[in-house]
Amino acid sequence: MSEDIICRRLTGRTAVVTGAGSGIGLASARRLASEGANVVCADVDEVRGKAAAEETGGIFVHTDVTDPEQVEALFRTAYETYGSVDVAFNNAGISPPDDDSILETGLEAWKRVQEVNLTSVYLCCKAAIPYMREQGRGSVINTASFVARMGAATSQISYTASKGGVLALSRELGVQFAREGIRVNALCPGPVNTPLLRELFAKDPERAARRLVHIPLGRFAEAEEIAAAVAFLASDDSSFVNATDFLVDGGISGAYVTPL
Ligand SMILES: NC(=O)c1ccc[n+]([C@@H]2O[C@H](COP(=O)([O-])OP(=O)(O)OC[C@H]3O[C@@H](n4cnc5c(N)ncnc54)[C@H](O)[C@@H]3O)[C@@H](O)[C@H]2O)c1
């Protein structure tokens, strides 16, 4: 973020970030903290989660987002520590290699991905919204993906279905709680330049090219570009953005023919 656009839209607000130890979650924890929020970093990875909390001046709560009691304890800790739960960025997710074509993917992999990517969002919303109702204010941001909106021949069937579930769940909650001052949006990132993605595509340039050709901007997103959208959705600047699939995909979902 360049010096002249630094803003402090979240001073005094408390933001819970799941999956804060890495990637989009980490970049978002940094950005939310830089805008003045108290950041509560949740992750199953103790080392990375603690490092995120230290760096952002927040707290770490060890949380497996598939466990109802741990999720309740996460939001309770946020409330007891800082006095409010203003932002819930329900972001933790997985895309394991055994989730593939429907022809290959077994029931165990299907269920595991549904638990971590979709049931976790249900649990986090269920735990966060009562605090927000009491305050009469809150912004919930659930991480989905552009693949919830588009079909891929390079399938990860449970991942895609889980993210479609996140879209429908977010839309419904955004409508249900709108008049109580609570906005709920799904964030749909395009592919992000992560170490995992870089490694995968370094090994297989053909696979990388097959994807890049669909992106009008001609590159993957940086995690900081997704974090900027998270900060917008968290802040009052997005006060009329609700119950939407908020796409940050470089134009992928709008493209038919891309530039050479
Ligand atoms: N990276 C992309 O290209 C991309 C694109 C679209 C959507 N997304 C979505 O964005 C979100 C974040 O992705 P990322 O690329 O930053 O991933 P990442 O792997 O870099 O980070 C995910 C974090 O979630 C944590 N986590 C995993 N399971 C957990 C659990 N059960 N409980 C608590 N924490 C858990 C991990 O420890 C990790 O720190 C995911 O929901 C992902 O599906 C990613």
Kindly identify the CATH topology.
Rossmann fold
Category by helix and strand content: alpha/beta
Helix content: 40-55%
* SSE order, one letter for each helix or strand: EHEHEHEHEHEHHHE
Overall CATH architecture: 3-Layer(aba) Sandwich
Q: Give the biggest sheet.
A: 7 strands, parallel
Rg (C-alpha, Å): 18 Å
Low-pLDDT parts are: none
CATH class: Alpha Beta
Give a description of the structure:
This protein has 260 residues and is an alpha/beta fold. The chain has a single domain (9-194, 222-244), classed as Rossmann fold. It is built from eight helices and seven strands. It has helices at 23-34, 46-56, 68-82, 107-135, 157-176, 195-203, 205-212, 223-234, and strands at 14-18, 38-43, 59-62, 87-90, 138-143, 182-189, 245-248. The chain has a seven-stranded parallel sheet, with helices on both faces. α1 (23-34) packs parallel to α2, α3 runs parallel beside α4 and α6 (195-203) crosses α7 (205-212). It is globular and about 50 Å long. The mean pLDDT is 95. The structure holds nicotinamide-adenine-dinucleotide. The site of nicotinamide-adenine-dinucleotide has 27 residues, from α1. It comes from Streptomyces albogriseolus. This is NAD(P)-dependent dehydrogenase (Short-subunit alcohol dehydrogenase family).
